[in-house]
Amino acid sequence: MSEEETKTAEELNKPAEETEPEEASSETEPEPEPETATEPAAEKPEAEAEEAEPDPEARIAELEGQVAKLKNAYAMAYADTENTRKRLTKEYESNMKYHIQSFALEILPVLDNCERALALKTEDSNDENYRKGFEMVFRQLTQALKKEGVEEIEALDQEFDPNWMQALMTEQVEGVEPGKVTAVLQKGYKIKDRLLRAAMVKVSE
Protein backbone atom coordinates (compact mmCIF):
# COMPACT_ATOMS: atom_id res chain seq x y z
CA MET A 1 0.00 0.00 0.00
CA SER A 2 1.20 3.45 -0.70
CA GLU A 3 1.53 6.25 1.92
CA GLU A 4 -1.61 8.07 0.77
CA GLU A 5 -3.71 4.98 1.06
CA THR A 6 -2.21 4.32 4.50
CA LYS A 7 -3.27 7.82 5.71
CA THR A 8 -6.74 7.41 4.42
CA ALA A 9 -7.13 4.15 6.25
CA GLU A 10 -5.88 5.66 9.48
CA GLU A 11 -8.32 8.50 9.20
CA LEU A 12 -11.15 6.13 8.71
CA ASN A 13 -10.09 4.08 11.70
CA LYS A 14 -9.99 7.11 14.13
CA PRO A 15 -12.50 6.85 16.89
CA ALA A 16 -15.61 9.01 16.62
CA GLU A 17 -14.91 10.53 20.03
CA GLU A 18 -12.17 12.71 18.64
CA THR A 19 -14.52 14.45 16.24
CA GLU A 20 -17.38 14.87 18.74
CA PRO A 21 -15.85 17.73 20.74
CA GLU A 22 -15.62 19.90 17.67
CA GLU A 23 -19.23 19.29 16.76
CA ALA A 24 -20.32 19.90 20.30
CA SER A 25 -18.38 23.11 20.50
CA SER A 26 -19.89 24.35 17.28
CA GLU A 27 -23.43 23.44 18.23
CA THR A 28 -23.41 24.76 21.84
CA GLU A 29 -25.65 27.82 22.45
CA PRO A 30 -24.06 31.00 23.78
CA GLU A 31 -24.40 31.55 27.50
CA PRO A 32 -27.04 34.16 28.39
CA GLU A 33 -25.69 37.50 29.40
CA PRO A 34 -26.15 38.42 33.09
CA GLU A 35 -29.24 40.44 33.75
CA THR A 36 -28.55 44.03 34.55
CA ALA A 37 -30.24 45.93 37.39
CA THR A 38 -31.49 48.66 35.12
CA GLU A 39 -35.18 47.82 35.51
CA PRO A 40 -35.29 48.15 39.33
CA ALA A 41 -33.26 51.33 39.08
CA ALA A 42 -35.81 52.72 36.65
CA GLU A 43 -38.67 51.82 38.98
CA LYS A 44 -37.02 53.34 42.12
CA PRO A 45 -37.54 57.08 41.33
CA GLU A 46 -41.25 56.45 40.73
CA ALA A 47 -41.55 54.75 44.09
CA GLU A 48 -39.70 57.58 45.81
CA ALA A 49 -41.89 60.13 44.06
CA GLU A 50 -44.99 58.33 45.28
CA GLU A 51 -43.65 58.26 48.83
CA ALA A 52 -42.56 61.96 48.76
CA GLU A 53 -45.90 63.22 47.43
CA PRO A 54 -47.82 64.69 50.46
CA ASP A 55 -51.38 63.93 51.29
CA PRO A 56 -53.61 66.61 49.62
CA GLU A 57 -55.93 66.83 52.62
CA ALA A 58 -53.03 67.31 55.02
CA ARG A 59 -51.57 69.98 52.74
CA ILE A 60 -54.93 71.79 52.60
CA ALA A 61 -55.24 71.68 56.39
CA GLU A 62 -51.72 73.09 56.74
CA LEU A 63 -52.45 75.95 54.34
CA GLU A 64 -55.73 76.72 56.09
CA GLY A 65 -53.86 76.94 59.39
CA GLN A 66 -51.36 79.37 57.88
CA VAL A 67 -54.20 81.48 56.46
CA ALA A 68 -55.90 81.60 59.87
CA LYS A 69 -52.65 82.74 61.52
CA LEU A 70 -52.16 85.47 58.91
CA LYS A 71 -55.76 86.65 59.34
CA ASN A 72 -55.29 86.81 63.11
CA ALA A 73 -52.04 88.77 62.75
CA TYR A 74 -53.72 91.17 60.29
CA ALA A 75 -56.68 91.72 62.64
CA MET A 76 -54.36 92.48 65.56
CA ALA A 77 -52.25 94.89 63.48
CA TYR A 78 -55.40 96.63 62.18
CA ALA A 79 -56.82 96.98 65.72
CA ASP A 80 -53.54 98.45 67.00
CA THR A 81 -53.46 100.89 64.10
CA GLU A 82 -57.04 101.99 64.71
CA ASN A 83 -56.43 102.49 68.44
CA THR A 84 -53.32 104.54 67.71
CA ARG A 85 -55.18 106.63 65.14
CA LYS A 86 -58.08 107.32 67.53
CA ARG A 87 -55.71 108.22 70.35
CA LEU A 88 -53.69 110.61 68.18
CA THR A 89 -56.88 112.18 66.80
CA LYS A 90 -58.21 112.70 70.32
CA GLU A 91 -54.95 114.25 71.47
CA TYR A 92 -54.88 116.54 68.43
CA GLU A 93 -58.47 117.68 68.99
CA SER A 94 -57.78 118.25 72.67
CA ASN A 95 -54.66 120.29 71.90
CA MET A 96 -56.52 122.37 69.35
CA LYS A 97 -59.44 122.88 71.74
CA TYR A 98 -57.38 123.89 74.76
CA HIS A 99 -54.21 125.18 73.09
CA ILE A 100 -54.63 128.60 74.73
CA GLN A 101 -55.03 127.23 78.27
CA SER A 102 -51.48 127.95 79.47
CA PHE A 103 -51.52 131.43 77.97
CA ALA A 104 -54.93 132.19 79.48
CA LEU A 105 -53.74 131.18 82.96
CA GLU A 106 -50.94 133.73 82.69
CA ILE A 107 -53.34 136.43 81.50
CA LEU A 108 -55.85 136.00 84.35
CA PRO A 109 -53.74 137.99 86.87
CA VAL A 110 -53.64 140.82 84.33
CA LEU A 111 -57.44 140.81 84.22
CA ASP A 112 -57.56 140.89 88.01
CA ASN A 113 -55.29 143.94 88.13
CA CYS A 114 -57.34 145.72 85.49
CA GLU A 115 -60.51 145.11 87.50
CA ARG A 116 -58.86 146.48 90.66
CA ALA A 117 -57.82 149.60 88.79
CA LEU A 118 -61.31 150.03 87.39
CA ALA A 119 -62.83 149.65 90.85
CA LEU A 120 -61.05 152.81 92.09
CA LYS A 121 -63.20 155.95 92.03
CA THR A 122 -61.62 159.36 91.51
CA GLU A 123 -62.78 162.86 90.74
CA ASP A 124 -59.55 163.84 89.00
CA SER A 125 -60.07 164.18 85.25
CA ASN A 126 -56.57 162.84 84.50
CA ASP A 127 -57.20 159.74 86.60
CA GLU A 128 -60.52 159.30 84.84
CA ASN A 129 -58.79 159.29 81.48
CA TYR A 130 -56.41 156.59 82.71
CA ARG A 131 -59.38 154.65 83.98
CA LYS A 132 -61.05 154.78 80.58
CA GLY A 133 -57.83 153.54 78.99
CA PHE A 134 -57.70 150.61 81.41
CA GLU A 135 -61.34 149.89 80.67
CA MET A 136 -60.70 149.73 76.91
CA VAL A 137 -57.72 147.39 77.37
CA PHE A 138 -59.72 145.20 79.73
CA ARG A 139 -62.66 144.97 77.32
CA GLN A 140 -60.47 144.09 74.33
CA LEU A 141 -58.56 141.49 76.30
CA THR A 142 -61.70 139.78 77.58
CA GLN A 143 -63.20 139.76 74.07
CA ALA A 144 -60.05 138.17 72.63
CA LEU A 145 -60.11 135.49 75.32
CA LYS A 146 -63.81 134.89 74.76
CA LYS A 147 -63.16 134.13 71.09
CA GLU A 148 -60.85 131.35 72.26
CA GLY A 149 -63.48 129.96 74.62
CA VAL A 150 -62.32 131.63 77.86
CA GLU A 151 -65.28 132.97 79.82
CA GLU A 152 -66.04 134.14 83.34
CA ILE A 153 -67.87 131.72 85.63
CA GLU A 154 -71.19 133.22 86.74
CA ALA A 155 -71.18 132.68 90.48
CA LEU A 156 -72.91 135.57 92.28
CA ASP A 157 -76.41 134.65 93.53
CA GLN A 158 -76.01 131.17 92.03
CA GLU A 159 -76.18 127.80 93.73
CA PHE A 160 -72.80 126.77 95.02
CA ASP A 161 -71.23 124.33 92.55
CA PRO A 162 -68.05 122.63 93.79
CA ASN A 163 -67.13 121.78 90.21
CA TRP A 164 -66.62 125.46 89.37
CA MET A 165 -66.37 127.21 92.72
CA GLN A 166 -64.34 127.13 95.92
CA ALA A 167 -65.95 128.32 99.15
CA LEU A 168 -63.57 130.33 101.29
CA MET A 169 -66.10 131.29 103.97
CA THR A 170 -69.75 131.06 104.90
CA GLU A 171 -72.18 133.53 106.42
CA GLN A 172 -75.77 133.77 107.49
CA VAL A 173 -77.81 136.16 105.40
CA GLU A 174 -81.46 136.88 106.08
CA GLY A 175 -83.74 136.06 103.21
CA VAL A 176 -81.08 134.01 101.39
CA GLU A 177 -81.37 130.28 101.07
CA PRO A 178 -78.45 128.17 102.30
CA GLY A 179 -75.94 127.21 99.65
CA LYS A 180 -76.25 130.44 97.70
CA VAL A 181 -73.18 132.46 96.67
CA THR A 182 -73.41 135.80 98.43
CA ALA A 183 -70.10 137.31 97.31
CA VAL A 184 -67.31 136.62 94.79
CA LEU A 185 -63.88 137.19 96.26
CA GLN A 186 -62.02 136.29 93.05
CA LYS A 187 -63.56 135.65 89.67
CA GLY A 188 -63.34 132.20 88.19
CA TYR A 189 -62.85 131.33 84.53
CA LYS A 190 -63.42 128.32 82.31
CA ILE A 191 -62.12 127.44 78.88
CA LYS A 192 -64.98 125.91 76.92
CA ASP A 193 -66.08 122.94 79.05
CA ARG A 194 -62.93 122.76 81.21
CA LEU A 195 -62.21 124.59 84.47
CA LEU A 196 -59.44 127.16 84.11
CA ARG A 197 -59.62 128.74 87.57
CA ALA A 198 -62.23 128.15 90.26
CA ALA A 199 -64.19 131.11 91.55
CA MET A 200 -63.38 132.04 95.15
CA VAL A 201 -66.77 132.71 96.80
CA LYS A 202 -68.64 133.28 100.05
CA VAL A 203 -71.63 130.99 100.62
CA SER A 204 -74.71 131.42 102.76
CA GLU A 205 -75.47 128.86 105.46
Main attributes of the structure:
alpha+beta, 205 residues, 57% helix, Nucleotide Exchange Factor Grpe, Chain A, domain 2, 6 strands, 3-stranded antiparallel sheet, 3-stranded mixed sheet
Structure write-up:
With 205 residues, the chain is α+β, with helices and mostly antiparallel strands. α5 runs antiparallel to α6 (125-147). The protein has a domain at 101-204: Head domain of nucleotide exchange factor GrpE (Nucleotide Exchange Factor Grpe, Chain A, domain 2, Roll), CATH 2.30.22. The protein has helices at 3-12, 20-27, 38-52, 56-97, 101-119, 125-147; strands at residues 150-152, 165-171, 181-186, 189-191, 194-197, 199-204. The longest helix has 42 residues, at 56-97.
| Number of E strands | 6
Largest beta-sheet characterization? 3 strands, antiparallel
Residues in helix, %: 55-70%
- Gross morphology is elongated
Strand content: 5-15%
Strand order of the largest sheet: 1-4-5
Structural class: alpha+beta
What Rg, in angstroms, do the CA atoms define?
A: 59 Å
Q: Helical segment tally?
A: 6
- Just give the CATH class of the domain at 101-204: Mainly Beta
Low-confidence stretches: 15-27
Q: What is the H/E string?
A: HHHHHHEEEEEE
Describe the structure in brief.
The protein contains six helices and six strands. The protein is α+β, with helices and mostly antiparallel strands and 205 residues long.
